[in-house]
Design a protein that fits this description.
626 residues, alpha+beta, Immunoglobulin-like, 16 strands
Length: 626
């Protein structure tokens, strides 16, 4: 009986709408380029802005109420020989008790994309295209019909059909518009939350020992110069944190405006920059070993009356810059969307978002910069603190080879591959074990007369860990076993290593992927990745190799698109991610149909394997239902 009531309700609300529905559903039409040629594909974007509390239903008839889907009709058009269905962003899907089924709908600001095919013989000139959009808009109390006429002009020119063109999506910042529409304070809170979540990504971890060692060294130096010290521990930590916030924001936005949305990522992934950072870490490591003292170059301080202060500030800000470059090698989803928005002329929200994100991002490192300086002031801290510095020096030496291997990957030296870097790390950890029991001495060390319990425990742990790392030298992965601890450790370490050779199941050519997908009628899984991307490696090791994920991958044509190589195609893939999908984030995952329709997207790095499996399952169900 309730179905009859619902049918009557919908009929009456459709028959007697009580408000002006022109104000409920608004949309703009954006064409993908200025002119067209016979036989070319054409992409139209319908950029919607739905009134608060209202929604319109999906373009998919199976996910909408009966006759409630959104669709478009064109009138008397002599231009198109084929009109494809809409593709749409991920809709909101909920069980609707009124219709006794799951329904999918959209609200707020979003875009539908429609692909059309131009006829093969079109006379050059300007054409007017007319059509009507049909939809049902509902709020909690009523539904109203939407019939909105529209028109737009198309300029057709002579020439052969072009296979390639750049599609510019006006809804690039759609990922952040939903948040900015909520207001300034909610957006700041959202950006802060995303910054704190980014601290859990592997990209950040190498900066922890580097920060501790730098400020341990600084604290020790300041303690020796206590009478003339001009930078207090608190001031040094504040400068470091503010340096990260300001450099992260300004560098990201300036490079986005000058080099495009991926500008900061391009700089951070540059092999020369990675090589420089690698050698700087080696240089800093030997300073921690006690072979020399670090000082700012003379030309940086010669114009300052307070030379000690200037030297300290310069070193701290340089560390802030190093931190920023290291973190940009993996661009978080929010930052990727903000940089795209900035590259297209938006300033206010990207500045607010970047400042908020970087504030949360820098906050733990304020504490990591503060505490080591106070540790250096403790009585009798000389001996054990020097041991801490030496161990940190070894860790920085290990981190250096991570950045050197980044350069190797881009330049394709094939010298510092996975096995070589893993062997070096195994050797470094073994040297820490030997150092801990006094078999190796550095300039500021004295031969221990007695091996303390602390040193014995450190020796046992590092020796076992070096043996554990060595297991990866005899297989393509460090031993993971069935233990959760081993799995986490193996996955984390492997994410910092150069990737192994790609499996034959993965294709690295998008054109070839389309051909194969059409041959076997499978959807395409796009993995936008980078040679230098630590978070990408983490996903590949910890998520892609899960048994259930491997089985789901059998349903796809698998494609890796590297965005940071030297070849022209790497640049094309980087621009494709930005221009079509509105983000510069790495990693980023997209599922396409063989005819190039977007089925769904996934924001990238995630520790929630179930959500990734749901993403794949939903795409499979969507594709094979059509």
């Amino acid at each position: 009986m309730y179905k009859i009531y619902i049918s009557i309700f919908i009929f009456l609300t459709l028959l007697f709408p009580s408000i002006n529905y022109d104000e409920i559903v608004k949309f703009d039409i954006i064409l993908d380029r200025e002119d067209y040629r016979s036989g070319e594909n054409m992409t139209i974007e319908f950029a919607f802005d739905i009134k608060d509390n209202y929604h319109i239903y999906s373009v998919d008839t199976t996910k909408s109420p009966l006759a409630g889907e959104t669709y478009v009709e064109y009138y008397d058009s002599l231009l198109f020989q084929n009109i494809d269905d809409f593709s749409e962003p991920n809709p909101i899907t909920k069980f609707d008790k009124n219709f006794n089924k799951n329904t999918s709908y959209h609200k707020g600001k979003f875009s539908f994309i429609q692909n059309l095919k131009m006829k093969d013989s079109i006379i050059p000139g300007s054409y007017l295209v007319k059509g009507t959009l049909y939809a049902i808009a509902c709020d909690p109390s009523k539904c109203v019909p939407i019939y909105k006429d529209f028109q737009f002009s198309i300029n057709c020119v002579e020439g052969e059909a072009r296979k390639e063109f750049k599609y510019i999506n006006s809804n690039l910042a759609s990922g952040i518009k939903e948040q900015t529409d909520k207001g300034l304070i909610p957006f700041i809170i959202f950006s802060l939350g995303m910054g704190f979540l980014a601290l859990l990504t592997p990209c950040v971890f190498p900066m922890i020992p580097i920060t501790i060692s730098f400020f341990t060294k600084l604290g020790e130096k300041q303690e020796k110069e206590a009478k003339t010290r001009t930078i207090t521990p608190l001031k040094a930590a504040i400068i470091y944190a503010l340096g990260i916030i300001i450099i992260f924001t300004l560098l990201g936005l300036i490079l986005a405006l000058t080099l495009g949305a991926s500008g900061a990522q391009q700089i951070a992934q540059n092999p020369w920059i990675n090589l420089l950072i690698g050698f700087l870490f080696i240089f800093f490591a030997f300073s921690l070993f006690g072979y020399y003292e670090l000082q700012a170059p003379q030309f940086l301080t010669q114009y300052s009356q307070k030379r000690e202060s200037s030297s300290g500030y310069t070193g701290i800000l340089f560390m802030s810059l190093t931190f920023t470059l290291a973190s940009f090698t993996c661009t978080a989803a929010l930052v990727g969307a903000l940089l795209v928005a900035a590259s297209q002329g938006e300033y206010f929200w990207p500045i607010v978002g970047m400042l908020s994100f970087s504030t949360a991002f820098a906050s733990p490192f304020f504490l990591l910069a503060l505490f080591p300086q106070y540790l250096a002031k403790l009585p009798k801290s000389g001996g054990w603190l020097n041991s801490v510095k030496v161990i940190m020096g070894f860790l920085e030496l290990a981190a250096a080879f991570k950045f050197i291997s980044n350069s190797d990957l881009v330049w394709e030296w094939n010298i510092f591959d996975r096995e070589v870097v893993l062997f070096i790390w195994t050797l470094i950890i073994l040297l820490i074990a030997i150092y801990s029991i006094g078999f190796i001495l550095f300039p500021h060390d004295s031969k221990p007369t007695k091996i303390s319990l602390r040193r014995k425990l450190l020796f046992i742990f590092t020796l076992l860990f070096s043996i554990y790392l060595s297991t990866g030298l005899f297989s393509n992965k460090i031993y993971a076993g069935n233990s959760k601890v081993f799995k986490i450790t193996s996955g984390l370490v492997e994410s910092y290593l150069p990737p192994p050779k790609a499996s034959s199941f993965w294709i690295e050519d998008l054109d070839l992927a389309y051909i194969k997908a059409k041959e076997v009628n499978k959807p395409i899984f796009l993995d936008f990745t980078g040679y230098t991307c630590t978070n990408c490696r983490w996903m590949e090791i910890n998520v892609f190799e899960e048994k259930d994920v491997v089985q789901l991958f059998d349903q796809f044509i698998l494609v890796k698109l590297y965005t940071d190589g030297r070849e022209e195609k790497n640049k094309e893939y980087r621009e494709l991610e930005i221009n079509r999908f509105g983000t510069a984030a790495l990693p980023f995952y997209v599922i396409l149909s063989p005819d190039d329709k977007i089925i769904s997207t996934f924001p990238g790095y995630s520790t929630d394997i179930e959500s990734f499996k749901n993403f794949l399952n939903n795409a499979i169900n969507t594709f094979y239902k059509k």
